[in-house]
Amino acid sequence: MVDKFSSCLVCPITFSLFRDPVVAEDGHTYERQAIIDWIQNNSTSPLTREPITIAGLRSNHVVRNLVDEFRKSLSKHNYKFKLDVDIERSRNPFFQTTGKALFEAKWIGNPNGPCIILLKLFGARAEKEASFYEYLTRHPHIVYTYGLVEQPNATSNTFLMLLQEMAPEGSLINILEHHSEKYPNIPLPNLLLNHIFLQISEAMKFLSSKGIIHGDLACRNVLVFHFDVQEPNRTLVKLTDFGISRGNTIYSKIDAVATVIDTIPIRSAAPEVLQNSDNDSTDIYSEKTDMFAMGVLMWEAYSNGRIPWSEIGKESIVRKKVIDGERLSRPDNCKSDCQWSLILKCMSQNPDDRLTFQELTKQLTEFVTLPVNSNVSVSV
């Protein structure tokens, strides 16, 4: 599926625009540091499996020139593009939900451009969500936004459009559900899931460092750019959907509109949020409320994308259970005691007992570097 969406301007390892492209002995072009890191841990090509070496890498000046031209084009447009002039989109969205719609899109006059989608945001929070995307776009595990899209002769200003990179594999929830349907008796490898969790945690650590609360951390809001069961370290995911995000630091850096947030994802919300759901004070929300949701996200992944508390129809009952200290039961696919201990720690009743994302990143890094059969205790 990746080949269908490939671009000569994008590294097949990082799925980001090249900065220092090099050709390897397999004939493919990679970002220099990405392929060096790969070769240091593997002796074969990530695409063809034939032997390649660091000594065999050669700068790809043709691709570098193409990327430079593309970047100049972005800068020339001031990261603002016109619909039907610079960009064309599909007539109908391929995904739509409250407040947003996603359209297939492609560059006009630039067949080598990276694969893109157009995100259309509606409602009072559109400007605020767009601001988060623009501000956070440089992190390798947050979806990349190329800029704003203007619609010539538009008669309404009740929406905003953003141009973003396309995730070839869709969302993590799609991957989990598809795997469950195709291989109902074969769980995804623990190592693969930990690589995914680690990348999400790194993105969340970055958000936390900026004083930003995501607010809706879930498998449906994780995009998958590459998925490799055989080589888990090649899997690449990125965080998306800042529709109910909040924070203080960001407002001093960009022009955003503060609006009341009345949407709470009940089934992944921390008990202190549910306890004070009628109070929109930002004091309730913290890195630790996102950490609780991270625990639920990991539970989702081990449960093949099952909805948390799916056996309970009424969210009012879910709310009471979580406030009273009940937690989701251990998924059958979560065989590791230390993994389950980690998930439970993320979902601790007391926010002070939960990990920070820096601590979680450290723990997950240990998990992905330990031998497969290791069962170490959770350490912070």
What layout of secondary structure does this protein have?
Elements: E1 21-23, E2 29-31, H1 32-41, E3 58-59, H2 61-76, E4 80-82, E5 87-89, E6 95-97, E7 100-107, E8 116-122, H3 126-136, E9 145-150, E10 159-165, H4 172-182, H5 190-209, E11 212-213, E12 222-226, E13 236-239, E14 246-247, H6 271-275, H7 287-302, H8 315-323, H9 337-346, H10 357-369
Parallel strand pairs: 4-9
Antiparallel strand pairs: 1-2, 1-3, 5-7, 6-7, 7-8, 8-10, 9-10, 11-14, 12-13
Helix pairs in contact: 5-7, 5-10, 7-9
Q: Could you characterize the architecture of this molecule?
A:
There is one protein chain. The chain has 3 domains: 3-68, Herpes Virus-1 (2-Layer Sandwich); 77-165, Phosphorylase Kinase, domain 1, CATH 3.30.200; 172-369, Transferase(Phosphotransferase), domain 1 (Orthogonal Bundle), CATH 1.10.510. The relative contact order is 0.10. α5 packs antiparallel against α7 (287-302) and α5 packs antiparallel against α10 (357-369). The protein is of the alpha+beta class and 380 residues long. It is built from 10 helices and 14 strands. Strands 4, 5, 6, 7, 8, 9 and 10 form a 7-stranded mixed β-sheet that branches. The protein has a 3-stranded antiparallel β-sheet with strand order 2-1-3.
